[in-house]
């Protein structure tokens, strides 16, 4: 079940949102931006619904902060507002909001917006995991995400022959704590850092199989597997076919 962060300084609105969404999602509630930021630092959040008009840091400023922070910028944000002007709508989209809903709104409209945003993210994650040649940056939803994923991918590939890539060292390379790296990677890809490393190994292996220059056992060693049987099992798990079947499925010139 996905987790949604609801932000509104009106407790009645939070109660209303909790009633219409509570049966379908895990919910975290925040009465202001400061509380919301504390939750973001501790939890894996899949989507944010925030009011715009709040004291202190308002919804627009919070949206801008989140979308410029590498730790959270992948999280889709729906902004709620009572302003009924074209300029306010544009302003919401300019700070990076993924959707903008005017109050009062129907519960069905909000639910559909949430479902569509989460479903689109899920499809992209599944496509990346199951497609041998899909680049990790397909999961990027912003330039900040793209830079993060490119740097992460390069480190893994540079150390691909090492069967035991150290997650703490990887986190240090990304200028994050181990916990923050886990939360970021899990949220953006639905994979743990270890699983992402495994998929990167297998995608590189798929490329080597297509080149047809090495035996399967050599390829497994080149991408950091000490056991060919584990390599074959993992390849089958993610790509739904064995390395040999994959080679036979490739088009011939």
UniProtKB/TrEMBL annotation:
Question: Hey, what's the signal peptide range on this chain?
Answer: none
Q: Which residues form a coiled coil?
A: none
PROSITE patterns to which the protein is assigned, alphabetical: HTH_ARAC_FAMILY_1, HTH_ARAC_FAMILY_2, RESPONSE_REGULATORY
Please name the GO terms that the record assigns under molecular function: DNA-binding transcription factor activity; phosphorelay sensor kinase activity; sequence-specific DNA binding
* Domain Response regulatory stretches: 3-118
Q: Name the source's superkingdom.
A: Bacteria
SUPFAM superfamilies listed in its UniProt record: CheY-like, Homeodomain-like
**Do the record's keywords include DNA-binding?**
yes
Keywords linked to the UniProt accession:
DNA-binding, Phosphoprotein, Transcription, Transcription regulation
Which species expresses this protein natively? Arachidicoccus ginsenosidivorans
Any idea which residues bear 4-aspartylphosphate here? Answer: 51
Q: List each copy of the HTH araC/xylS-type domain by range.
A: 150-249
UniProt cross-references to InterPro entries, sorted A to Z: CheY-like_superfamily (IPR011006), Homeodomain-like_sf (IPR009057), HTH_AraC (IPR018060), HTH_AraC-typ_CS (IPR018062), Sig_transdc_resp-reg_receiver (IPR001789), Tscrpt_reg_AraC-type_HTH (IPR020449)
Task: Please identify the protein, giving its name as recorded.
Answer: Response regulator transcription factor
């Amino acid at each position: 079940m996905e987790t949604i962060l609801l932000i509104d300084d009106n407790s009645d609105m939070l109660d209303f949102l909790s009633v219409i969404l509570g049966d379908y999602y895990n919910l975290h509630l925040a009465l202001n931006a400061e509380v919301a930021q504390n939750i973001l630092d501790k939890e894996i959040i899949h989507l944010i619904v925030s009011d715009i008009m709040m004291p202190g840091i308002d919804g627009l400023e919070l949206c801008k902060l989140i979308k410029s922070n590498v730790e959270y910028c992948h999280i889709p944000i729906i902004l709620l507002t009572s302003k009924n002007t074209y300029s306010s709508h544009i302003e919401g989209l300019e700070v990076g909001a993924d959707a903008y809903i005017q109050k009062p709104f129907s519960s069905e409209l909000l639910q559909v917006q949430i479902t569509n945003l989460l479903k689109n993210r899920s499809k992209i994650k599944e496509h990346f995991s199951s497609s041998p040649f899909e680049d990790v940056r397909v999961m990027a939803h912003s330039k900040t995400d793209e830079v993060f994923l490119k740097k992460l991918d390069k480190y893994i590939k540079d150390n691909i022959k090492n069967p035991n890539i150290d997650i703490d060292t990887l986190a240090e390379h990304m200028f994050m704590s181990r916990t923050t790296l886990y939360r970021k990677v899990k949220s953006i890809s639905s994979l743990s850092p270890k699983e992402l490393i495994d998929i990167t190994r297998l995608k590189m292996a798929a490329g080597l199989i297509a080149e047809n220059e090495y035996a399967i056992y050599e390829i497994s060693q080149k991408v950091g597997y000490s056991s060919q049987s584990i390599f074959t099992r993992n390849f089958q798990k993610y790509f739904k076919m064995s390395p040999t079947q994959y080679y036979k499925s490739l088009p011939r010139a």
